[in-house]
Amino acid sequence: MPSRVFPFSIAIAVFLLDRLSKWIIKGHVDAQETLSVIPGFFNIVHAENPGVAFGLLADASGAWRTFFLVGLSATVLVFITLMLLKPVRASAPDLVLRIGLACILGGALGNLYDRVVNGTVTDFVEVYTGTHYFPAFNVADSGISVGAGLLLLDMWRGRGKKAEPRARTIDVS
Question: Residue 77 burial by CB count (10 A; 0-12/13-18/19+): exposed, middle or buried?
Fold first, then answer.
């Protein structure tokens, strides 16, 4: 039976990997520098993103944007933590759900830390083909994306299950 600590261990691992990777990038890659890893496909860059994923809200006013993003992240963290504190079931689908939530929790915590401490989020993975670039992202974003994928898988798997019939009681009085 999985313990309640297990998903929090995953979240901490995602958070620590995110912090370590951002620390390495900030210490070894200059802002806006590009290091080609796989030419024509994958670069390491150092970008500071004041907005959310894909640079959304990057042009919004600083105080409003920061308040909104920190508040939204904190709300998500509380909601996911409460879900993970619920009693644990031993079923595999529940494990997929809990791992997905843990990945999202760790990623959200990593990006929230950046936003509170630096006012921006450090992104460094850039994938592209030809002139088509996917916006730069980081380990926290990857954790959030993997977690969201696991949540979708859990929902998809749950659709195939039929609800167990409930016992009906008949009042004969």
Answer: middle
Which one of the listed residues 30, 123, 154, 171 is annotated catalytic?
Answer: 123
pTM, rounded to two decimals? 0.80
Choose the catalytic residue: 114, 141, 154, 171.
Answer: 141
| 123 is an active site residue | yes
The pLDDT profile of the chain, 173 residues, written as one tens digit per residue, is 457 789 999 999 999 999 999 999 999 999 888 999 999 999 999 999 876 655 555 555 556 666 777 888 889 899 999 989 887 766 655 888 999 999 999 999 999 999 889 888 999 999 999 889 888 899 999 999 999 999 999 888 776 565 555 555 555 65
